[in-house]
Design a protein that fits this description.
Blueprint (H helix, E strand, L loop, with lengths): L24 H19 L3 H5 L8 H6 L20 E6 L3 H4 L6 H11 L1 H15 L3 E4 L15 H8 L26 H4 L5 E2 L13 H7 L4 E6 L2 H14 L3 E5 L7 E2 L2 E2 H12 L2 E3 L1 H11 L1
Parallel strand pairs: 1-2, 1-4, 2-3, 4-5, 5-8
Antiparallel strand pairs: 6-7
Length: 295
């Protein structure tokens, strides 16, 4: 269980001087402390909300803060769900992003809480399963060989330095259960039901390097309801890639969340781009109703 997992030491792929990745457990722990320290000032305003856990829906304050413009300046489009052609795709529904015990909670926790992200993703799972809608997971894993990359972007470097999504190898599930790379415990009954398609891992942000597109096409899917983490990173990158590949994509705006750091509000950056490029930007309430009607 996630509650039993010690994130100070549970991401080991054998971090140490012999593994060759350049990180030791001490450097991983130091990097995690730095992430939490940098986030403290930014997240202080949401500390009270975070303390009581996630709401079942986006809070009134969050809805107001990220409200759509009263008079949109762009054409308003939408996506219709068609049975047999539409699937739910969830990015990174994993402990490191969505649990208070995850290594990124210090920067994403406020957004996850105010959007009700954890509960809203589960509501989408329930709705899709009840409607017989295919569900695809695009997970994020890092193996020891990934820690030997010669160059990294800012957040790649951060993820590697804090041991995010670490696993000991692509063929090993050692210490996986309850780790930061594992699914959120409440999602396991939906993901591990023998029907959900768990794709190979994406490595940076988009599904360009995994088999999501292949798996969708082989099922005859050309419309996607997109949710998961994190809003301006993997979720947004999946949106862009899927659009470029010819899919229609509706993003569920309160079934994702983003980091709040001194550099900016990741969720705000994402919601602006969702409005500009997606075929639909839905609330979970709306998405659940549409999925039910499509059954």
């Amino acid at each position: 269980m996630a509650e039993e997992h010690d994130h100070g030491h549970g991401h080991e792929h054998g971090h140490g001087h012999a593994c060759g990745c350049g990180h030791t457990q001490e450097t991983v722990d130091l990097a995690r402390r730095r992430v939490l320290t940098r986030a403290a000032g930014v997240a202080a305003g949401g500390a009270a909300a975070m303390a009581v856990g996630s709401a079942a829906a986006a809070t009134d304050e969050a809805r107001a803060q990220y409200a759509d413009p009263e008079k949109p300046g762009l054409p308003q489009v939408d996506m219709t769900i068609e049975s047999g052609r539409t699937a739910l795709v969830v990015t990174d529904p994993q402990v490191d992003f969505l649990s208070e015990k995850g290594v990124t909670w210090g920067v994403v926790g406020e957004s996850v809480t105010e959007q009700g992200t954890v509960e809203n993703i589960e509501r989408l799972f329930i709705a899709a399963k009840a409607a017989g809608m295919p569900v695809f997971i695009s997970p994020h894993y890092y193996y020891p060989h990934d820690h030997k990359w010669k160059f990294e972007g800012t957040l790649e470097k951060t993820m590697h330095s804090i041991g995010m999504f670490d696993r000991p190898g692509p063929l090993s599930l050692e210490n996986f259960d309850g780790s930061g790379a594992d699914w959120m415990p409440q999602y396991k009954k939906y993901i591990e039901d023998g029907e959900t398609i768990v794709c190979s891992p994406h490595k940076v942000y988009s599904p360009a390097q995994n088999d999501l597109n292949l798996q969708l096409r082989k099922r005859g899917i050309d419309k996607v309801i997109l949710a998961g983490m994190s809003a301006n990173l993997c979720t947004q990158a999946h949106l862009y890639e899927l659009l470029e590949l010819g899919y229609e994509v509706a993003v569920v705006r309160d079934a994702t969340a983003g980091a709040k750091v001194p550099e900016g509000d990741g969720y705000l950056a994402a919601i602006i781009n969702f409005r500009m490029v997606a075929n639909g930007v839905w609330w979970t309430d709306d998405a659940v109703e549409r999925i039910a009607r499509s059954a």
